[in-house]
Amino acid sequence: MKIMRRLYDWVLSWSDSPYGSWALFAIAFAESSFFPIPPDVLLVALAVGAHKKAFRFALICTAGSVLGGMLGYLIGWQFMALIGDRIVALFGFADKFVRVEQLYNTWDAWVVFIAGFTPIPYKVFTIAAGLFTINFPIFVLASALGRAGRFCLVAGLIYLFGPTIKAFIDRYFNLVVTAFTVLLIGGFVLIAHVM
After folding, report:
1. Name one GO cellular component term (predicted).
2. pTM for the whole thing?
């Protein structure tokens, strides 16, 4: 846990740097395939420091994350035995991988969208998408929509409420995102049954 805390503090330290936007892009890129700390930490810090630029930071974060997701896809598709298995084992996701395969077989790109939007470890799903050879353009589109939705939600809250929302995001973000995802999926299921 000390290593994770040091990584968390290191990520947060970039908010005081003139290279904060570049760091946000790089961390979002890395987190989508192998880095353990989500970019939301730095996104919140940067957006609170300059809440008028919150959506700009969200777009930077989205771009880095989607490109990093493409790297994760490549790892799963071409280098699973060499690199992917080690990344999955490092984070203790080996037992979840079988479940992820079942989800992909049932829901395909929806899994990528939901993983991109929710607090679920996105890197597992990017690597699995490559391993199970999900349609690449659909993977990219689902990643872009899911990640943009997540990061723009954070940016929107900070833009609307300013620094006062930081404590709420820190405490309840996972719950809010999970509730929103359940409502979103419920809406799609309802539409499918009505039509």
Report:
1. plasma membrane
2. 0.80
Task: List the structure tokens of 39.
Answer: 């970019």
Give 172-191 pLDDT, tens digit per residue.
Answer: 767 766 676 666 566 545 54
Beta-carbon count within 10 A of 131 CB = 23
Cβ atoms of 27 and 64 within 8 Å: the answer is yes
Handedness of CA 61, 64, 66, 71 (dihedral sign): negative
Better-predicted residue by pLDDT, 57 or 184 = 57
Contact 71, 28 (CB under 8 A): no
- Across 78-96, b (16+ Cβ under 10 Å) vs e yields ebbeebbbebbeeeebeeb
Tell me the CB-side half-sphere exposure of residue 80, using CA atoms within 13 A: 15
3-state secondary structure 99-116: HHHHHHHHHCHHHHHHHH
Tokens of 41: 């930490």
What contacts 173, CB < 8 A, 6 or more positions away? 40, 119, 154
Q: What is the pLDDT of residues 139-157, one digit of tens each?
A: 999 999 999 999 998 899 8
Instruction: List phi, psi (to 5°) of 43.
Output: -55, -45
